[in-house]
What we know:
The complex is a heterodimer of chains A (532) and B (313). Chain A has 532 residues and is an alpha+beta fold. Chain A has 3 domains: 2-249, no CATH class; 262-363 and 510-531, Immunoglobulin-like (Sandwich); 368-436 and 445-506, no CATH class. Chain A has 12 helices and 20 strands. Chain A has helices at residues 2-14, 16-38, 40-44, 55-78, 95-124, 133-157, 161-188, 203-220, 223-245, 247-253, 344-350, 527-531, and strands spanning 46-47, 50-51, 262-265, 276-277, 283-293, 299-312, 315-319, 323-329, 334-343, 354-375, 380-383, 387-394, 400-401, 404-405, 408-417, 424-432, 450-456, 471-476, 491-492, 498-520. In chain A, the strands form 5 sheets. In chain A, strands 6, 7, 8, 10, 16, 17, 19 and 20 form an 8-stranded antiparallel β-sheet that branches. In chain A, helix 1 (2-14) packs across helix 5. Chain B has helices at 43-50, 94-101, 110-120, 133-145, 163-176, 189-193, 213-219, 261-270, 284-297, 299-308, and strands at residues 3-14, 17-28, 32-36, 58-63, 66-67, 79-83, 151-155, 181-186, 198-203, 206-212, 221-227, 241-247, 250-255, 274-281. In chain B, strands 6-7-8-3-9-10 form a 6-stranded mixed β-sheet, sandwiched between helices. A 4-stranded antiparallel β-sheet of chain B has the order 2-1-4-5, with helices on one face. In chain B, strands 12-13-11-14 form a 4-stranded antiparallel β-sheet, sandwiched between helices.
Amino acid sequence: MKQTLHIFYKDVRRFWREMAISLALLAVLIWMGPKQWRDASFRASYAGGYLIPGTAETFLPMLISISWWLLIVRVVHEERLVGDRQFWITRPYEWNKLLAAKTLFVACFVYLPLAAAQWGLLEEAGLHPATHIGSLLYDWLLITVVLILPIAAIAAVIRNFARMTLTLLGVLVALLIVISAFSALLQKGVVHSPVGQTDIPDVPLLLVVCSTAVLLAYARRKIAMGRILLLMLPVLLFLSQEFFASDTMVSHAYPNSNTGVQFTLRENPMLLETAHPALNRKELLIQIPLHVAGIMPGDLWVSNGARVTVESSGRTIWNSGWRPVSNLYFNVEKDTDLTFNVSREVFYSVQSQSVTLHVELALDQAHRAQVVTAQASLGDIAVNGLGVCSSIINPGSPYTVGGKASLQIVGLNCRSALRDPELTYVETAWTNGPCERNKSVINEFLPQPLLRSTWIGNLIDEPSELVIAPTVVTPLNFLEYNRDEGSPAALQICPGAPITFTRYSLVRQLRIEFTIDNFRFPSYDKREDGER
Amino acid sequence: MSVTIQTRGLAKHFGRIAALNGVDLEVEEGSIYALVGPNGAGKTTLIKLLMNILRPSRGEATVLGIPAARLAGSHFNRIGYVSENQEIPGWMTVAAWMEFWRPFYPGWDAALERQLVAQFDLPLKRRLKDLSRGMRMKAAFASSLAYRPSLIVLDEPFSGLDPLVRDELIEGLLDRSPEATVFLSSHDLAEIESFASHVGYLAEGRMFFSEEMTSLSNRFRDVTVTLDEPAAIPADPPPDWLQLQVNGAVARFVHSGYSGETSEQTVRAAFPAARSLSFDAMPLRSIFLAIAKKERHHPPAFLTEVHKGRSVA
Lengths: 532, 313
């Protein structure tokens, strides 16, 4: 412990500038964070029904990450592990104490300030940090695995800061190439988006590989092995992603279950739309008009993926594999469309005959967990289980009260702790006119309220996203679907108007199967190819 | 005498290049062992293997009875290592540098530290990066001697230093030598000749000989044979006669296996017309030159002799 502290104090003396930069950026985050939901600057960014994310949401976390990168790389390289000329390698340094000193440094100057900043910001946002300790811990785990450990691991196997910078640039360029290549392959239909996957890379894999590289470097100074491991990491991540996205794993994640929900083909065959070319042009887009029944009141079903098998005379002609689809079913009965891509070859081979479609859907079942009704106000509205919502005020209100411009509520933005809120249905009444009767005008017409609703959040069952700014601000875009109702500039939510928040919680994930007999593929006009 | 450093068949390859090729070495406790050889001979590689900075491709080494590959942490409480090209944290002042190391060593002698600082005239308030090369070396020496290590390992410690600094460092080193084994490398024979007790010659990754300085000096003689009349070079001279030349009535060579009367008898037998013989002691530099020249002509025979630990021919 004595040696650990001794090395730690030395590093503190050495890296006060880097520490100061990192702490200053966190201080700016603390200062700017609340502005997102309070200050006029954020209101001004509201334009045409859309909210533009603030600086604190985008640039500051990036700058803070860069400052951590600088801090960690410098502190690791102070006792460089690569090379044979370092001052410390022939001194009585114990590797575990050295590693402990570096860990202590990162804990004190990355995690502790981050924890304090996040706690303060949550408190300031009215989100009661004490109730989110689990989420905070999970967020720190994600930050560790996705950010801190990879930086430390790369720093441990790279000789100096210049090479580290070049490596980082190389990694970014490689990442861009891989993403571009993947997008191109996605568009061409060579690969498909995974079903029911989150954006966070494989946490255990990253944890194991990066920790091993760090330990090998510190305990044995086996740099080459660490480098090989880190070079293999992208391949391992890709393979892992492919493994979990494989049909077998999707089927395993969504076990077959009898739910009482029935999907049937809508009876009117005229409903079958013509096929359209898919984005990748190799395939055609087929819509199956379905009717959903048997949804229990208070239940909500979200389809994440579908697998369609085409059979003819008991023989399987084609199987789509699991492909992502996104639909929400929450009424007792609902008409819906299932869209899937089929190759032109298959399409033309079955177009003239009736086939049997065997459809499997990967579904999330959610249940209404809570209904909260609040009244619109100029202040904050605390919504249990969701967070806190603030009214968005239009500074250029067209309405006046007593000769002065009245405050016009043009939307809500809700802030939740560390992740998007749980899936919530929000409904409120909008007014296309002034909120108060003008006493000087007799029999003034007050417009009828318009009920408008929107969904926010998701059903992802993870306690936190990977965030540095702990307050996730979600704007509620009620208006974007309602432009035909008149000028959006005239619409407003009047103070006192009821706002209903219906929150849904994930119950289980399951798979249902149904069969459509005597299905005929729709027609396809080849001229559409030329139009694109 | 116990052995402080021992290697057996120690080899190190960097790709296809063999930096060390099966080195056997023994360094006795209390000795001042100078490992000499030209640049690129493998001296630094050997020292780095001994200090577990590099890992051997083959063979084994022990340092203070500990396998070199396991040297780590507290083992270095007993070892002081200074290298000419060692990186040091330039941002530290000399005082901070000494202060930093103090808690690492249970045997740190504060009085000795003060003595070394004074002896080397170290400017405590100046940053290491602002010091001259000689001063930086002195700071490294002071921080490696102040805990009274049992083994002091120095890799080209005097390279590029002015004579004054070199003498100061040697003085500091000799002050510690009664209580420590010193193992140092150098490519400059003159540097070590005055104080080394043992010497080893490494070239092209191979150890050509390793022995006590006195034994080496006693073994080598510059032999001059004055003959009655001009003679030819003997048909089959002994293998330990190096650089044999006959100019008219004078024959000269380096005897690498001199052993007093027996050697004189052998010379007389080879030159029956010898009028007088002289066997002059040789400076270390001349000994090494003779070895180097011989090696260039007949490396295999030379090697064979060296590995038997006898004379060099």
